[in-house]
Amino acid sequence: MKKILVTIFFFIFSFTVFAAEPLVDTKWLNDNLKNKEVFVLDIRNKIDKGSYETFTQGHIPGSIHSDYLQDGWRTKVEEIIGQLPPVKDLELLIGSLGIGNKNHVIVVYGGVSSSDFGSASRVYWTFKTLGHDEVSILNGGYKAWESSGFKIETGEHNPKLAKFIANYTDKYYANADDVIKVIENTNIGLIDARPAAFFVGEKKKKQALRAGRIKNSFNLEQQTLVNEDGTFKSVEEIKILISQAGLNGKDGYISYCNTGHWASIPWFALSEIAKEPNVKNYDGSMVDWTFDPNREVIKG
Question: pTM value?
Fold first, then answer.
């Protein structure tokens, strides 16, 4: 009888893991921390004033740290910053952290701003692009965990080498050629995720060669999708923002920003929370787009 109860408990406990949504809360994570298939990936970095040293001073029990900005989650390709690294490089990075194909990865960001959330959504998008669907984001990040009163550990992490094999898909990935193909197609929504000053051409990122936006794009500012406490907006709020941006009724979407960091936020909102079909993130975005002087840029 005892063996039967243990077996039943195992299946119930396992189901809670694989029923995880794209966003999980602190209670869900605390309830699932002891499941060996759950892997807590702490990506705190300079954006949230975090680092490995910050991690050692306090982190979720059992979590492993990887600095989003420094450890190779993005790279420079042909002078374009912020690009998706080669698949083999990402396999080595992920495996070196101890993540295998059977792990359900919970991405933990600082929880202090929308740009900070972009670290998590970009890493989440990277896993999805590598064909690893077992991934979620801790809603509210480490700040929410601290506020919850759940246990916090200190000290070094101890990653154990694992084998991670990618199954790359372009389902969520867009490049300049993909944008060019749909730029005149009003059934596909081009989403500019940057603050309005970038959209109209009043500001630009240093590495972008021209200010402005891609023709026929709509402005859905990334910061509108994240609450002041660092948590993500609800599906109802997201749908209102999509409508206000003029993006209803599209057959698909391509999100862009300066490099593909901010753009991962509306990508996450539409693809993973609102469950819109055919949503892609333009890797390299305006830095890549303006690298070719023949590509049109709109101001005003």
Answer: 0.94
